[in-house]
Structure formats: structure tokens, C-alpha cells
UniProtKB/TrEMBL annotation:
Name of the protein in its database record: B30.2/SPRY domain-containing protein
Record lineage: Eukaryota, Metazoa, Chordata, Craniata, Vertebrata
GO cellular component annotations of the record: cytoplasm
Record domain B30.2/SPRY: where: 15-206
Organism: Oryzias javanicus (Javanese ricefish)
PANTHER family in alphabetical order: B-BOX DOMAIN CONTAINING, E3 UBIQUITIN_ISG15 LIGASE TRIM25
Pfam families to which the protein is assigned, alphabetical: PRY, SPRY
Keywords: Metal-binding, Zinc, Zinc-finger
InterPro entries in UniProt: B30.2/SPRY, B30.2/SPRY_sf, Butyrophylin_SPRY, ConA-like_dom_sf, E3_ubiq-ligase_TRIM/RNF, PRY, SPRY_dom
PROSITE patterns: B302_SPRY (PS50188)
Entry superkingdom: Eukaryota
GO MF annotation list: zinc ion binding
Length: 206
């Protein structure tokens, strides 16, 4: 796949009507998967703890060995498991609502070059908190969203429909954005933590 740069768009959008209704979390949990972070992909500023389920940022580089899978530009990390078929759901706990990106990426996404930042190429998608602003990014196109200020975010990847939906998880799961996402190859949960003091934790499905 070739990367094709596009101009940025910052038009604010409301939640699409087709995902505006809350869903029962118990139904989503039936599709729950157990995830861990892949240390081979972790940028050298990413610290993985709690049995590879928590990712945070260090001011100093770690001593991870060099490998082709490792991100070298942005403090990003992938999950160790990717999906090419079926429906899969996971949840992530945020330490704060600042300077964190949660998304998905094909395994073939660039790890080393200028297009290795989540959402800034045609091989990845993410929702990104920058201060109080929440944006959705794909192929370098930004869509500013209404920010529900979630403490826990759920992601439903439906490989059969080619769609990924992001939820603000509370008493129910409230969808706040959806991407069209064809599963042409394995799709991996992807994360970007770009400020010291911020962290993301993969939640147990219960």
C-alpha cells in the first residue's frame, strides 16, 4: 500500500447518528479479548509494566534491543495480537485525558520513518487527546470530535463489517466515533503516549 498525503481538515463533527445510542456493556464483553503490549514494537521511551498491560513514558530511553518492529520516532506501541476476521472488543484505562492516542494499525505500518505516527498514514487510525481537544485521525486528516472525557475507552473491531467503534465506557458503553476500517491484513490495537505522567492500561474483561 502506498502512502498518499492529504491536507488536514479540522472541521468539528457531532457523533454520527448511526452510532449515537448507548450499548449494553455486557453484550460487548462477550466479544472481549485478552491483550498485552508487544515489547518488540515499543518505542525506547515506552515503559511496559504490570505483565505488559501498562504503557507509560520515561524521560530516559530504555535498553530495548534494536529490531525492525520497534517504533523509533513516536512513543508508540502495538498490542501483541492482531485480527483479520471476527468481532473483537477491548478496553483501555487512561491515566488522564491528555496527550494519549488510541487506535489501530496494520502490521505493515512504517515503524521508522516520518509516516510512522498513528493516523498520519493510510495504514492506521486513531483518536487522540491533546489537552482538552479530542480528534480522530486517518491518513493525515483530522476530524475534531466532541470530547466525552472518558476514563475508560472501549474499542470494538468488526472485521466482517470493516468498522472500528470507540466507546466511552461507564454504566453503559457510549459510542463517540467510528472508522471504516477494511481488514485487508492483520489489524493491531495501537497506542501512543506522548507526555510524561500519562499512561494507558489494558483492562481485564470483566
Amino acid at each position: 500500500m502506498e502512502f498518499k498525503a492529504k491536507g488536514q481538515s479540522k472541521e468539528k463533527t457531532e457523533i454520527p447518528k448511526d452510532i449515537a445510542s448507548a450499548e449494553k456493556r455486557t453484550e460487548l464483553l462477550k466479544l472481549g479479548v485478552v491483550l498485552t503490549f508487544d515489547p518488540r514494537s515499543a518505542h525506547k521511551r515506552i515503559i511496559l509494566t504490570e505483565d505488559f498491560t501498562k504503557a507509560s513514558v520515561s524521560e530516559e530511553s530504555t535498553t530495548y534491543p534494536e529490531c525492525p518492529e520497534r517504533f523509533s520516532v513516536c512513543s508508540q506501541v502495538l498490542a501483541s495480537k492482531g485480527f483479520v476476521r471476527g468481532r473483537h472488543y477491548w478496553e483501555v484505562r487512561l491515566s488522564c485525558n491528555n496527550f494519549i492516542g488510541i487506535g489501530l494499525a496494520y502490521g505493515s505500518m512504517d515503524r521508522k520513518g516520518p509516516t510512522s505516527r498513528l493516523g498520519r498514514n493510510n495504514l492506521s487510525w486513531c483518536v487522540e487527546w491533546f489537552n482538552v481537544k479530542l480528534s480522530a485521525w486517518h491518513n493525515s486528516v483530522e476530524t475534531v470530535l466532541a470530547n466525552p472525557n472518558p476514563k475508560r475507552v472501549g474499542v470494538l473491531l468488526d472485521c466482517e463489517e470493516g468498522r472500528a467503534t470507540f466507546y466511552n465506557v461507564a454504566d453503559r458503553a457510549y459510542p463517540f466515533h467510528s472508522f471504516s476500517l477494511p481488514c485487508l491484513e492483520a489489524v493491531y490495537p495501537a497506542f501512543w503516549v506522548f507526555s510524561s505522567g500519562s499512561s494507558v492500561t489494558l483492562c481485564k474483561m470483566q
